[in-house]
Amino acid sequence: MKFSDEFETRFTMMARHYPTKRSVLVPALLYAQDEIGYLSDEVIQEIARRLELTELDVRNVISYYSMLTTKPRGKYNVQVCTNIACMLRGGEELFAHCRKKLGIGHKQTTQDGRFTLEEVECIGACSWAPAIQVNYDFHENLTVEKLDKVLDGYQK
Amino acid sequence: MPDVTLTVDGKKLTAPAGTLLIEACKSAGIEIPSFCYYPNLSLQGACRMCLVKIEKMPKLQTACTTVVTEGMIVTSDNEEVRQARKSMVELLLGNHPLDCPVCDAGGECELQDMTFSYGAAESKYMEAKNHKDEQQWSPVVFFDRPRCILCYRCVRVCGEGMDVWALGVQNRGVSSIIAPNKEDHLECEECGMCIDICPVGALTSGAYRYKTRPWEMKHVGTICTHCGDGCKTTLGVRRSDSGMEIVRGDNRDKSGINNDFLCIKGRYAFDFAHHPDRLMQPLIRKNGKLTPANWEEAFELIGKRFAEIRDHDGMIGVVGSSRITNEEAYLLSKFARVVLKTNNVDHHRTADFPALAAALSGKPDSTATMREVYDAPAILLIGNNPTDQHPLLAWQIRNNVRLHRSRLYLINSQTIKLGRQAAGFTQIPAGTEGKVAAYLAGDDAAVEAIITEKNSRETWNALREKLRGEQKLVIIFGSEIRGNDVAVLVKFGSGVHGAKFVCLADYANSRGAADMGLYPDLLPGYHRVADTGKFHDEWTSIPATTGLTLPEMVDAAKASKLKALYVVGANPIGRLGLDPFLFSKTFVVVQEMFLTETAFMADVVLPAANAYEKSGTFTNTCGDLQILKKAGEVTGTKSDFEMIVRIADAMGFDVHKLVPFGAGERTDMGQSRGAQSGEADRHAVWLEARGLEPKMSPLEPTAILDEIQRLVPGYDFSRINLLAGNDQHTTLANSGPGAIQKPELIVPANDNLFSSGTLGRYSKALHSVMESRTQQTSEVAAD
Amino acid sequence: MASLVSHPDEVKVVSRRFGQGATNIDRYLELDGYKAVQKAFAMEPDAIINEVKNSGLRGRGGAGFSTGMKWSFVPKQSAKPKYVLCNGDESEPGTCKDRLIFEHDPHAVIEGVMIAALAVGSQTGYIYIRGEYRYLSIIMQKALADAYARGFLGKNIFGSGRDLDIYWHGGAGAYEVGEESALMESLEGKRGIPRIRPPFPAVVGLWGGPTVINNAETLASVPHIILGGAEWYAKVGTPKNGGTRLFCLSGNLEKPGVYELPMGYNLRKMIYEVGGGIPNGRELKAVVPGGSSTPVLLPEEIDISMDFDSVAKAGSMLGSGGVVVLDDTNCIVKFALRTMKFYRHESCGWCIPCREGTDWLEKTLTRFHAGGGLKKDIDNIQYLSENMLGRTFCPLGDAAAMPTIAFVKKFRKEFEDHLEGRPCPFERAGAVEQLPVLA
Ligand SMILES: Cc1cc2nc3c(=O)[nH]c(=O)nc-3n(C[C@H](O)[C@H](O)[C@H](O)COP(=O)(O)O)c2cc1C
Ligand code: SF4
Ligand code: FES
Fold this sequence. Notes:
Chain A is of the alpha+beta class. Chain A contains 7 helices and 5 strands; from the N terminus they run H-H-H-H-E-H-H-E-E-E-E-H. Chain A is elongated and about 50 Å long.
């Protein structure tokens, strides 16, 4: 199992910030996932080995956090917030539009592996609702038309 | 710490400071319901069943996490509290299958009990329940997710209690599930503690599930027949074609020295008793072939041949077992000397008890009980790997460290799992355990042999100083320490305040076999055959010269000098890898459950009952004496005790002189109905035919217990306590001078968690676990 | 990035440097940055704590506990290291203020953590930022690196002879992790399951050491208090509710946005004047005054002062500052359902009432809203919520129960309008499809 040098530098640096080894687990998993695409058995084994944890322990932690996944996802993870503030301003319509446009449902991936769609809980954009996040990018004050443009921007 | 006073439901209680409210209530007879609280496991506060009202607190509080404080006023049962608990049960039942009549836990389910207590059976729930298919996690563990109430007991007992950590919680919220790695298979020691501790029918045992109902079984609390630790196990027994069948082993009542612990063998490996290869009829070699015969014929033949050989000064050898009861071992030892007139007696030795007895002579109270291993402030373990060979001892050590912060010092040539609990682990070159003893006892030169790259002279110095400074140190050693090294280790122990010893032997009654004198040079209580004294007085005219050891008997057979060999519950040919034709000129009688390598070449094979099918006592490796209760009888078998007496009788020996009986009170001959009735009837018929009164029967092992208590040092225990099911410590220290035995005759059994000598070979449960393991490893290898 | 708004009634304290380029450390220094911490160096720890106590600053994370008081619970002597933990997990629906602080004024948070550390005698601080806020963690990492480069952090800071380290830590998606004890579990690399209390974090917290946990806004307020003085800060708000608050106005408003208003600002004014009122000529139907866990207020209940005590008196809570406004086109059952869907998804699953209760309620509300409801369901929803309330392992269960009880009590008629197979009277085009249950 090999990670990028950037990951290694970050991992080494972060590991120094805590008195216990496992404390680095959650951010390390997220960075590993960003790099590999998902938390494969290999990644889990490697992280478990480094932090002297059992694989089971690592899996238990992964399965707790909604951003972590052990299944491959599309290149762009389209996360549509439908929580209250967004719902009041059309979040559900945005989600319905995504489903139609991409032809996939919640936590599904388009055939070409470009998009995964996810209905998510509040992403902290309530005052700029409705909002979505594509990977880590926020897109706010959306309408169906603006959403189309946003998604088109990710066609590459 | 001073006690605090509190009031619960108007009742004044006192409890030591630091006590949990739930425990304080329990001691005062006030039951607080709980699912997640389990004594000695970490606190969860998750099930919210233990909510109580505490004055000055706005919300209800969990009694399982609240520590008692002075003046606390608690209401454990009012409208608000009852409603809170009722609603918890209702919430659980919302997603729980309501099919108690089919559930495996029906009748012994804590959720069912709570539903009755709080009247939450009315269903408010209309939605489809969350479903997940049942899973098999290992040959012996099944999991039915919808029944799980997420009390986390299984996770904790596996992790905290067993230090295995094979179970965890996957996902979160209502999707949370108890799961092993990858959610499909267990990577564990297969102890089944998770099944036992599960309050509902979520975790079930592959051996027992859906076979019967708790109320349809007879529950018999007896002692496990596998390793030398002596766990108490409750056998669930039901009637079957062959008399009885054991369907379950557990220790849910937490009685006995093992509290709630059982390992895989204690929990599942009773199944050898029902193996189809089990012998159910005597066999006599006719025309070179073992042929079924009846009991009378067999006893007559054996009696005739044994008497002839003895009367013509032919050499007879006796091989006993470490799995027969104390009464049987004592009787066999006596039978050899008194009836066969020989000291050629031996058994498979796995520890040097005679050496320890000799070294402890004059030092009473110097052996530790299994309970003390759980309480001792410090433990020194030299050699052995208890996790594999002494699972209960390992449990005691581990939990002593966890709950009482005991300091564990490990000295071993291997890195063993208990290293995780050790305050200090010192690795030594293989075979230098004796040097360690010598160094600890003050022989500074011995250090040369145990200095390694990691452990310098200074490290050893520091360790010795630390150990010398400990108090009440329990010194545990494996068979690596034997012969003179035992005395040396005891010398070291004499310098440590309150030190006590545990010598580790491998079989369920290894200690008993040694204590009862299954040796060519020692009588019961390590009394030398050459020394006159009570045995010569009581047993009268017994031979006073040392007999043959097992290897010497083998040599005698080779030289065609051994005329007869009487093997009781042992398999020397298989164990020692001997040539099966070696005994072709010897008249061999074997008492066994199966046609082992030894039984296969015998002249007469007598089908024996096993430990679960007889009463008597076992002494575990620590010296704790416990009572065996007979679960039932298997048709066509007899206890070794009965067979020995019958052979003596067939030899024309006055059985009164072998087993004192008839003088005492009228015996309890067992139930007149039920599983034991067969034995009582049989005994009565036999007695009547001989014009004997049905008082204490000579076929009944307790008949000889008086004599054991009277003659064997260290066995002066309380009979009442024994009968009540309490363990009684017997101490080696009261024994005679013993003798330095031939340490080279000690051969460890080398059993691990999943093997158990002959018994293991006939246990499907153990086999299935081994097979699933080889499968998994080959799958990994194939990847 | 999130756009900024303004209104003349605003009193800019925490938001003073928003839009001023203060992520740049030089710019931050120009705008009085790191002055407060230097002032704090000259003060006795107790004096710092007293200043914060007297300022009337109450926790901006939701519970409104006196910050100075919380700090004073930390034992002076401790065998284990003490920690300061900044809670930037911001996940309460309706809340989006910490995000702006991290985006525009990260050094203020760092400075707040530093002052807290001085006050309680800690040498290590952590700033926990929710995983979705990746861009903010990048900003924060840069800010920390700059502070280290200037010698403001690390060994012998400001030449004081004291060492102080502050690190950034990231989450990975879990609302429950915002709860203080679950936050510590998460930081320790575990599942975000809350801890049994007592002991409280101030005594036994991170890795067993005494730990001060404060919301990011709370900590970002502290430097201003130290510089401007407790008296000034207290006077900005109302008695016992010092200072200002970032209110996140969202929902059916003409001008939603994050506004910094003095504590005690009138809710009606907040909605109609600051937020610009309800668009499209619709009427106000309801307000959720402090994030999704706070009980809903009816239009006739909004003439209240937005401070912790007054809102509590009105039967709700000031919470996390998320003011969610509903116009009369919205269905309360639907709103209650979406709220419950959130709590079901976010329950950690540890205790029975929360795990089972949220699932049961969400399923019932789903069926109910879809037209399959029975009259007894209404009572059952209330019964279930009331049986969760106050009996769960951590306050998440209460957060799910409280608003639900209020929805049923205050809008019972609307629940009844869904009965007997009637479809939802409010369903808007485009949103009729049944949404999946989040897994
Ligand atoms: C379920 C739950 C979620 C919470 N989420 C947050 C959060 O995201 N951010 C936060 O600052 N406080 C949150 N809190 C409150 C914290 O537990 C804690 O009270 C707060 O961080 C203390 O800081 P303060 O005193 O400055 O408010 C949450 C509480 C609960 C019960
Ligand atoms: S499996 Fe049994 S013991 Fe384990 S959490 Fe579930 S119900 Fe509890
Ligand atoms: S026993 Fe107290 S919460 Fe479960």
